[in-house]
Design a protein that fits this description.
The complex is a heterodimer of chains A (279) and B (241). Chain A is mostly helical. Chain A is built from ten helices and no strands. Chain B folds into two domains: 1-38 and 53-72 and 146-184 and 193-205, Rossmann fold (3-Layer(aba) Sandwich), CATH 3.40.50.300; 80-144, no CATH class. Chain B is 33% helix and 26% strand. Chain B has helices spanning 41-49, 88-92, 100-113, 129-141, 159-176, 187-193, 224-236; strands at 3-12, 15-25, 30-35, 56-61, 64-65, 73-76, 147-151, 179-184, 196-201, 206-212. In chain B, the strands form two sheets. A six-stranded mixed sheet of chain B has the order 6-7-8-3-9-10, with helices on both faces. Classes of the chains: A mainly alpha (279), B alpha/beta (241).
């Protein structure tokens, strides 16, 4: 009896230590990732407090934090964040939707490739920001020109990745489908699309990254709200802490949105046989 | 299910790979296509499967000339060719249509049969080569094909797994009397499994000999009779000393 008791205890201890290990390893990861940012912020604060840099050029982290709380307490901040996130999201959806339609056409129909691909590639070689003035001229400085702008940025990575994903589906898997007499539609739905998912998700993530880049460009050109507007405001009022506050918010929200996609990716691709790195 | 091939020829880029091959397979027979690499044995199997339709000649199943993939034909490839995003269970039921519960029961029976109980929810990346090929075997069988085509199905496996799966294949045959056409370059495998061994050689590939193996299953892998057959086949393929 005593022996089984000790056995149970030993097993329990093992389980607890395994759980601890798991928690410790994610904590360790967080810790390792925080070393550089924290060191940077501390040095920055010290340097600012000692007056080695002028505060009208580089304000201290505490000053930026003060500016952020000030913006937040007036309720302005939520407005800026909301409008920018809305623009990115709308542009992202629009760009992705159009990219998916064209990629499916070009991926599945050779004729569609001959028709669409040359012109899409030609448009791709235009630096996308060059469209900004034209869009503003056409659509004014309202939401539509900004969302279109972002959609253009999102379109290309999603389109290119999806097309290459479709074109590189393993012929051997298609043959399995043919052996089971799947129709063309079933082949697309049951084999080609799942096989394409990894590259599609890569496209989405880089598309989203470009979406954040383009929202800045669009908001710099003319906006009365948004995080990009805060950049302009900071420049015009000689307030570097406003600019830096905006930059930090871009970093946080951009990272957050990418993290969401990453979570989605690991959910959808848990079947993938991936390279596991050593510690 | 009888399978009759008449004068099958196949060219790839102006080179004849097989030329005028005729062969008929009886219902329930296991026929081996044996030959060195490049003799066109896989090409012939792909023509029978309907995956390749650019051959000349006619292929008839039960007296009916086929065009394309036939509903009663199953194929086990050299690699498992599992869909990586589907679990073992879903890979096995990939080819069956029908009501959910019936499909589930059927899959369960075959999972048990190939010895994968408890592994239903694993993904292909979590399987060993032998387990993955078991899944492929179950997937091909679950639709109850009347003709099973096998393209070197065990060639990528280790010797022991290979023997296990060969026995599994024979068990299946005992149970369902499935007609099988097996492409292989392994003489021992052909002797152990087949009722008839068709030896192919040269380019374009042609049939040089047909050997009938009369022994009942289960056969002894190390019998003297097998050694005689083996010497004969090696002679035919110019591999004797």
């Amino acid at each position: 009896m005593a022996k089984t008791n000790t056995e149970i205890k030993a097993r329990y201890a093992m389980k607890v230590s395994a759980d601890h290990k798991k928690i410790w390893s994610s904590f360790e990861r967080l810790l390792l990732g925080s070393i550089l940012p924290i060191a940077l912020i501390i040095t920055w604060e010290i340097v600012s407090q000692l007056g080695w840099v002028e505060s009208y050029q580089l304000p201290a982290p505490t000053a930026i934090l003060a500016r952020l709380t000030e913006l937040a307490s007036s309720g302005e901040l939520t407005q800026h964040i909301y409008i920018t996130v809305y623009r990115v999201f709308a542009g992202f959806l629009l760009g992705t939707g159009i990219a998916v339609i064209f990629a499916l056409l070009v991926g599945f129909l050779k004729k569609a490739e001959y028709v669409f691909d040359p012109i899409i590639q030609a448009f791709r070689s235009i630096p996308s920001l060059a469209w900004v003035p034209l869009f503003i001229l056409w659509m004014g400085i309202g939401e539509s020109s900004k969302i279109t702008m972002i959609a253009v940025g999102v379109f290309f990575p999603v389109y290119l990745n999806l097309v290459s994903g479709i074109l590189t589906v393993d012929r051997k898997l298609i043959e399995v489908g043919r052996m089971y007499q799947l129709s063309l539609f079933q082949q697309i739905y049951r084999i080609i699309l799942p096989a394409t998912l990894p590259s599609f998700l890569v496209g989405l993530r880089s598309g989203l990254g470009l979406g954040w880049m383009f929202v800045v460009a669009a908001e710099l050109m003319g906006a009365s709200q948004g995080l990009g507007y805060l950049l302009v405001l900071g420049q015009n009022t000689l307030a570097p802490e406003t600019i830096l506050a905006s930059i930090i918010l871009f970093a946080i929200i951009g990272k957050l949105s990418d993290w969401l996609l990453k979570v989605l990716e690991s959910r959808l691709l848990r079947w993938q046989d991936r390279f596991e790195r050593g510690s | 299910m009888t399978l009759v091939l008449e004068n099958i020829s196949r060219r790839f880029a102006d080179v004849d790979v097989i030329k005028d091959i005729s062969l008929s397979v009886e219902k329930g027979e296991i026929v081996g296509l044996l030959g060195t690499s490049g003799c066109g044995k896989s090409t012939l199997l792909r023509a029978i499967s309907g995956l390749d339709q650019d051959y000349r000649g006619t292929i008839a199943i039960n007296g009916q000339v086929i065009q394309g993939v036939h509903a009663t034909t199953g194929f086990i490839f050299q690699e498992p060719r599992l869909l990586p995003w589907l679990t073992v269970q879903d890979n096995i039921t990939f080819g069956i249509k029908g009501k959910q519960q019936a499909v589930f029961d059927r899959a369960k029976r075959f999972i048990e049969y190939v010895g994968l109980t408890g592994k239903e929810n694993l993904y292909p990346r979590q399987l060993s080569g032998g387990m993955a090929q078991r899944v492929a075997i179950a997937r091909a069988l679950v639709t109850s094909p009347e003709i099973l085509l096998l393209d070197e199905p065990f060639s990528a496996l280790d010797a022991f797994t290979k023997m296990q799966l060969q026995d599994l294949l024979l068990e299946i045959w005992e149970k369902y009397q499935t007609t099988m056409v097996l492409v292989t370059h392994d003489i021992d495998e052909a002797l152990y499994l087949c009722d008839r061994i068709v030896v192919l050689r040269d380019q374009p590939g042609r049939i040089i000999k047909t050997i009938r193996v009369e022994q009942q299953h289960p056969r002894n892998r190390g019998s003297v009779e097998f050694a005689h057959y083996k010497t004969d086949i090696l002679n035919q393929l110019d591999f004797s000393q």
